[in-house]
Amino acid sequence: MANTKIPVELLPIAEATLTDGATIAWDVSTSPVAKVTLAGNRTLSAPTNAINSGQYIALLVIQDGTGSRTLAWNAVYEFKDDTAPTLTTTGGQGDLFTFRYNGSKWLEVGRNQNLTLS
């Protein structure tokens, strides 16, 4: 298949580690598949640099050893019934979220919670 172009959103993407802090930034053009370990109660800012409508992103949110950390989601994340999820509270466990961009909002399309990661 000479000269076949594969859209960047279909290429295998390595998981990036987001920097934990009071407010967590996420550049989804360079890190569409990411993880973050929460070391305190945090806020996830709106993703920056979306490639286009229809883009999918995934975020693994991990509790540190202490656990019971909370995450406040920016209003651009849309959840079923407009209700943000309650995170798993067990230290070392994780929650995986996937979203699809519609041009203005990131619509949740999947969630898998209370994952044992090791």
- Work out the helicity level: under 10%
Radius of gyration: 15 Å
Question: How many E strands?
Answer: 9
For this structure, the quaternary state is single chain
Number of domains: 1
Distance between the termini: 40 Å
Average pLDDT, rounded to a whole number, is 94
Content-based structural category: mainly beta
Biggest beta sheet attributes: 6 strands, mixed
Annotation field: number of helices: 0
Label the overall shape. globular
Give me the side-by-side strand order of the main sheet: 1-3-5-8-9-7
**Strand content bin:** 35-45%
Name the helix and strand elements from N-terminus to C-terminus, one letter apiece.
EEEEEEEEE
Low-confidence stretches: none
Care to describe what's here?
The protein is mainly β. The model has no long low-confidence stretch (mean pLDDT 94). The protein has one domain. It contains no helices and nine strands. Helices cover 0% and strands 39% of the residues. Strands 1-3-5-8-9-7 form a six-stranded mixed sheet, with no helix packed on it. The chain has a three-stranded parallel sheet with strand order 2-4-6, with no helix packed on it.
Summarize the structure.
By secondary structure, the chain is mainly β.
Descriptive terms for the model:
mainly beta; single chain; 118 residues; six-stranded mixed sheet; three-stranded parallel sheet; 0% helix
Mind sketching the topology for me?
Blueprint: E1 16-17, E2 23-24, E3 33-38, E4 42-44, E5 56-63, E6 71-73, E7 77-78, E8 93-101, E9 106-116
